[in-house]
Amino acid sequence: MSERIGITGANGFVGRAVTRALLDAGKEPLGIVRQGAGAYEKQVPSLDAITPAVFEGCASVIHLAARVHVMNDAAADPLAAFRAINVDGALKTADAARRAGATRFVFVSSIKALAELDDGRPLTETDARRPPDPYGVSKAEAEVMLQEFGARTGMEIVIVRPPLVYGPEVRANFLALMRAIARGMPLPIGAVTARRSLVYVDNLASALVECATHPRAANQLFHVTDGEDPGVAELARRLGHHLKRPARLVPVPVGVLKAAGRLTGKAAQIERLTGSLQVDSSYIRDVLGWRPPSSLDAGLAATAGWFLTHKNTTS
């Protein structure tokens, strides 16, 4: 019988890719989802309802379920709402998995647990945590508390911090950028040279399978990226190439963009757009021998291909 690996949030964007990767690796995925359970899945109403029985037979668990970052959070206390799911929920899930006999818990965190921008060099796993917002704070706290849980119980805790994840079925800002390029909209980012680390969803899924199964991954913390950090304008140009619609980039000076951001109350968004976020992912390559199966260009091509096929249903 193949090794069974649990996945919380298995019907999400990353979860579906992880399920495919596990099947390709000859493993038995068991998805734990909140609604609409299908093949390889069990349904639970919430993380609070997870019991050891849910993870029966699992050697390890990949924890993707989370309250994700949102631009306009309606919660009265956003930090408390993030903590309830991303900290308390993760700890309850890890404990249920351990009680069911799982020996390893892979926590999918975020680079926001560390920082939102780099300080002039790629961020490494040993840098001090400086989370920029309630979402990042919740992920950072979960990392620390899970490591303490592992030290106390003997469960192997593996933490993975991806930067922006893209691929077919992507949503949010990456999808908005593709829409704008496809529609021929002028974009004021032609002068933005800041570099950004990304990870293609299938590359992240491949790394998570390694983290769930490789003996040397035990109790490690890894950054995972495509290994190529395009500039903001370069990314738009490359997407335009694959969308068969050259990106219309206007070279507005970065200083002008920042001034406009201050005037319009969007200074934080402009700072993220014009600032550098490079992430060093050499550690997972050195420790596990992992390499991203797909290049950045192949990932962008697959994402653009999906968009062109589904653009009438992604608006």
From TrEMBL:
<dbReference type="InterPro" id="IPR050177">
    <property type="entry name" value="Lipid_A_modif_metabolic_enz"/>
</dbReference>
<feature type="domain" description="NAD-dependent epimerase/dehydratase">
    <location>
        <begin position="7"/>
        <end position="218"/>
    </location>
</feature>
<dbReference type="InterPro" id="IPR036291">
    <property type="entry name" value="NAD(P)-bd_dom_sf"/>
</dbReference>
<dbReference type="Pfam" id="PF01370">
    <property type="entry name" value="Epimerase"/>
</dbReference>
<protein>
    <submittedName>
        <fullName>Epimerase/dehydratase</fullName>
    </submittedName>
</protein>
<dbReference type="InterPro" id="IPR001509">
    <property type="entry name" value="Epimerase_deHydtase"/>
</dbReference>
